[in-house]
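Our working data are protein records whose layout never changes between entries. Getting from the letters to the tokens is the skill we practise here. To make this concrete, we reproduce a full record directly below:
***
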Amino acid sequence: MGLGLSVLIAMKATAWMLLYLFFSRFGFTVLAIPLLYASLISWLVSIASHPSIDLPMLLGKNPDGTFPILSTIMFSPYLYFNRAFSMARRFLTGDEPYSQICEGLYVGGWPASPRLLPPGNPAIIDCTSEFPRIKEFKGHSYLCVPTWDTRAPQPRQIESAVKWACRKRARNQPVYVHCAYVSKLKRLLDPGSIGLTGWSSLVFYSLHL
């Protein structure tokens, strides 16, 4: 498993710090304090997302997909940057919000609105640690498996999620498995992919046993 996310966030932390130093040099130290704070939070996330630590609980996401107010405030530079980036990325790339793997099983990215969900009132398996469950989804069956982007859940989490998904499919309810950005079928079936893809395949095969 690569260090992609940790390195990326560390680069962002460095960029925030350089901006802070730049503005401070010209006497805008007070105005630049938010940049310093964003840098420190990014460094913290970079460390917590390292494979040797892998601590997605750092962000404080609740089992119901919400974030405590304290976590929202404390990690706001990271949380809101990711939400804005997700929406901008989807707009610029034109990616489909989800892909159907087989009857009743879908995978995709974070659904920021109801129109991005598959049809049929699907049960949702949320594999993100940084994105919230929006209030419009309160009526959907929901399982939260907090996972850093590009990382995979723990084996026990995978087993639990597969069993949960199988129970939903036994009732003929669609299942939507989502991480932050993955939406293409080829990413799901690519054995070199990481994060959601590998264990989504496990869900796929389990549902066909």
Notes: Confidence is low (pLDDT under 50) at residues 183-198, 204-209. The longest helix spans residues 4-25.
